[in-house]
UniProtKB/TrEMBL annotation:
Coiled coil: none annotated. One of its GO terms (molecular function) is small GTPase binding. Belongs to the CYRI family. InterPro entries: CYRI (IPR039789), CYRIA/CYRIB_Rac1-bd (IPR009828). PANTHER family: GH09096P. The lineage of its organism: Eukaryota, Metazoa, Chordata, Craniata, Vertebrata. Pfam families: CYRIA-B_Rac1-bd. GO terms for biological process: regulation of actin filament polymerization. GO terms for cellular component: membrane. It is a lipid-anchor. This is CYRIA/CYRIB Rac1 binding domain-containing protein.
Amino acid sequence: MGNLLKVLTCTDLEQEPNFFLDFENAQPTDGEREVWEQVDLVLKDARSILDELQAYKGAGQEIREAIQNPNDEALQEASWAAVVPLVGKLKKFYEFSLRLEAALHSLLGALTNETYDDPTQHLEREQALAKQFAEILHFTLRFDELKMTNPAIQNDFSYYRRTLSRMRINNTQAEGENEVNNELANRISLFYADATPMLKTLSDGTTKFVSENKNLPIENTTDCLSTMASVCKVMLETPEYRSRFTSEETVSFCLRVMVGVIILYDYVHPVGAFSKSSKIDMKGCIKVLRDQPPNSVEGLLNALR
C-alpha cells in the first residue's frame, strides 16, 4: 500500500507515447507473421484453458468421505477415481504455462530487437504482436484470479500426492500414477503453491529472457513494458481513443493489460515500477483505475497493492 502512496509525488516522466494500439483488429504484417503464427497456436488454446479452470469443481466431497472413513475401500477407490482426472487437468494447465512462457520469449525477442530505434516504434508498427503480448497478459491475470478463488485445486493435488505416497509404501499399483511422476509432481506442486502462478511464470520468463540475451540492454525490455503501460493508460484516459473501442470489454481488457505489464515491469526493472525513476506514470495509471466503477477494478488494484 505504501508503494501506491509513494507514487503520488512522482511527476518526473518523459513525454508519453501517443498512438492508438488496435487491440480489436490488428492484423500481422509480413514481417510479424512468423512469430505471430507461433504465438497464435498457443493463444488459440488459452480460451479453453480458462473455460476448464472456471468449470473446475474439485473432489472435495469424495476426499472428505475417504478421509473420514479410512477403512472403507470403496470410498478410497471413489475418491481416487474422482481425483485422477482432475490431476490430469491440473497437469494440462501447468504444461500450458510452459507453452505460454515460450510464446512470451518469442514476442519479447521480436519487440525488443534492433529493428526499430525505440519501443514506441516497435509497438506502433508491430501492432499484431503487441496485441498478442496484451492477450497473454490478459489471460495470465484472468487465470490467476480464477485460481486464487478455487482452493480445491491445491487440496485435490495434495490429496493425490499423499495417496500416491501411501500406495508406494504399500506397494500398490496406482492407476493414473504414470500421469504425473514424482519429479513432475514436485514442479506442479510448486507452480500451484504460488498465489499467482501464471504471473510468476511470466515474470520468471521475462527475467530469464533478459539474462539469456545479454547482447540486448535490459532497457530494451523494460522500456517495452513501460511503453505498453503508457499506451494503455493514454488510450483509456483519452476520449478520442476510447471512443474507438467497439466493445466495453476492450476497456476491461486494456485495464487488465495495463496492470499486468506494470507488475511485469516491477519484477524485471532493477528499482521497480514504484520508484521515482520509474518510466511508468503510476499516479496516472492508478487514477485511470480509480475512475472506473469500483467493482470492476478492485481485483486489479489489489494486484498492484
